[in-house]
UniProtKB/TrEMBL annotation:
The lineage of its organism: Eukaryota, Viridiplantae, Streptophyta, Embryophyta, Tracheophyta. GO terms for molecular function: ATP binding; protein serine/threonine kinase activity. Belongs to the protein kinase superfamily. Keywords: ATP-binding, Kinase, Nucleotide-binding, Serine/threonine-protein kinase, Transferase. ATP binds at K59. Residues 24-290 form the Protein kinase domain. PROSITE patterns: PROTEIN_KINASE_ATP, PROTEIN_KINASE_DOM, PROTEIN_KINASE_ST. This is Protein kinase domain-containing protein.
Length: 348
């Protein structure tokens, strides 16, 4: 096996199919995080008996540290079918010829990249149009409703975990919730708050409690970031925690003159400090901010091979756009559908 500073050459073979019947080839790296890496993946061959799309994303981790990824797969199975949540098509364990094992889950591919990337690239630091924000917001709310109805809390809702998936029929993009690596069952106890400090609710920071209202708080921070192009809180992590715990402090961008009164009121309903006063997902879906909206899809995004940040705090690392150049982008295979593949990829 050859290694250099940027690439690990791995010859993979399928160790077991676990009933999924999918033969795929690992492509360019899309993102990385604490719990694994995401690559673009393509089917080795198109088979009329295979219902999965030709392009997918594969999220992988070394088998020895794949427990979180395995739990994520089970959660996504339980959430399957909602059009506002990234779909999981199955899982496989693969083995390099050096004996290293990797656990992989096959996911819906988001060609529009993440909402975080959309905000950074398209708003110029001034925020997205309210029409676009409304469409994404309603999609996220509908995804959250399904998550909560099924008895889960996401615990890490933020722009980098909202992915933009293209509707090939009309050429528009829909926001879908992804990355369930930190999700938990409702009313299950936590020893410490999960997620990214920037989007944590007061009850999570102060009491370590994360339930459905905590996801609503994170949604408010996310909507504010879409509207303004700016992070909801400023400063280092300790200062952010202090601001979140303060009874009288709200994100400074909430006072931006560029935000309409309806939008401001929507965000304020999400950022009610008292959980009992914070609006529910169902109430927010009926807010006047979303009244004049047509469908949930947006034509704007056009990012190819976009970076996706997974399973970690954006404050702790910077995930740059990483693409393999042409010399690393051709894949070879031999044998049957589950035969040998020469694959270029990054492993943890």
């Amino acid at each position: 096996m050859k290694r250099d500073d940027h690439h690990l050459v791995v010859q993979e073979k399928t160790l077991n199919k676990q009933g999924d019947g999918v033969s795929w080839i690992r492509g360019p790296l899309l993102g990385r995080g604490t719990y694994g890496r995401v690559h673009k993946a393509t089917l080795r061959r198109i088979d009329k008996h295979v219902s999965f799309p030709f392009e997918m994303a594969v999220k992988s981790a070394e088998i020895s540290v794949s427990g979180t990824l395995s739990v994520e797969k089970e959660i996504m199975n339980n959430l399957k079918g909602c059009p506002y949540i990234i779909q999981c098509f199955g899982d496989e364990t693969t083995m390099g010829y050096d004996g290293d094992l990797a656990y992989n889950i096959l996911l819906e591919y988001a060609s529009g990249g993440s909402l975080s990337e959309r905000i950074k690239k398209s708003s110029g630091g001034k925020g997205l149009s309210e029409r676009e924000v409304k469409a994404y917001t309603r999609s996220i709310l509908r995804g959250l409703k399904h998550i909560h109805d099924m008895g889960y809390v996401h615990c890490d809702l933020k722009p980098s975990n909202i992915l933009l998936v293209k509707n090939d029929i009309v050429g528009e993009f829909r926001a879908k919730i992804g990355d369930f690596g930190l999700a938990k069952k409702r009313e299950s106890s936590l020893s410490y708050p999960r997620g990214t400090t920037m989007y944590l609710s007061p009850e999570a920071v102060i009491d370590g409690v994360q339930e459905g209202p905590s996801d609503v708080w994170a949604l408010g921070c996310t909507v504010l970031e879409m509207l303004t192009g700016q992070r909801p809180w400023k400063g280092e992590e300790d200062l952010i925690r202090t601001s979140i715990m303060s009874e009288n402090e709200l994100p400074p961008e909430i006072n931006s003159k560029e935000i309409s009164e309806d939008a401001r009121d929507f965000v304020m309903r999400c950022l009610e400090r008292k959980v009992t006063r914070r609006w529910t997902v169902e109430s927010l879906l009926r807010h006047t901010f979303l009244d004049d909206l047509g469908n949930d899809d947006v034509r704007e995004p056009d990012h190819s091979e976009s970076t996706i940040v997974i399973g970690d705090s954006e404050d702790e690392f910077d995930c740059d756009r990483l693409l393999l150049d042409d010399s690393f982008s051709s894949w070879s295979s031999s044998g049957n559908a589950f035969g040998r593949a020469d694959t270029l990829c990054h492993f943890l």
